[in-house]
Amino acid sequence: MKCLDPKDVAQNLPGWTGGDDFITKVFKFGDFAEAFGFMTRIAIIADKMDHHPEWFNVYNRVDVTLTTHDAGGVTQKDVTLAEAMETAAT
Ligand SMILES: C[C@H](O)[C@H](O)[C@H]1CNC2=NC(N)=NC(=O)C2=N1
After folding, report:
1. Does residue 75 have its Cβ closer than 6 Å to ligand 1?
2. Residue 57 confidence (pLDDT)
């Protein structure tokens, strides 16, 4: 799958930042239940896509990094998953 420029990708996603080979965002929720609810909904979508996030949760915060390991960079799969996260978080 074709790799995209992470900076270009991040510019079109609210609150996302582009790194060398990834895009990243910190999501904040009202409490742990909301954060974990978000992670649960995304886990189901991600597994159906066979495309899994790197993420770290403490209480109401979820730090997300998206990259496509098989491609060694950011691909359309990361864009699709980031968009699903935006929908699930709002
Ligand atoms: C074998 C399996 O399909 C692959 O390892 C999938 C699983 N989930 C994945 N997730 C991510 N983020 N990148 C991948 O390249 C990837 N590959």
Report:
1. no
2. 98
- Report the alpha-carbon distance of residue 58 to residue 28 in Å, rounded: 10
- pLDDT classification of 45: cutoffs 50, 70, 90: very high
Angle, helices 32-49 vs 76-89, to 10°: value is 150
Assign 3-class secondary structure to the chain. Answer: CCCECHHHHHHCCCCCEECCCCEEEEEECCCHHHHHHHHHHHHHHHHHHCCCCEEEEECCEEEEEECECCCCEECHHHHHHHHHHHHHHC
User: pTM of the full predicted structure?
Assistant: 0.97
Q: Which of 69, 74, 76, 78 to mutate to test the pocket of ligand 1 (most atoms within 8 A of CB)?
A: 69
Query: 3-state DSSP call for residue 35?
Result: helix
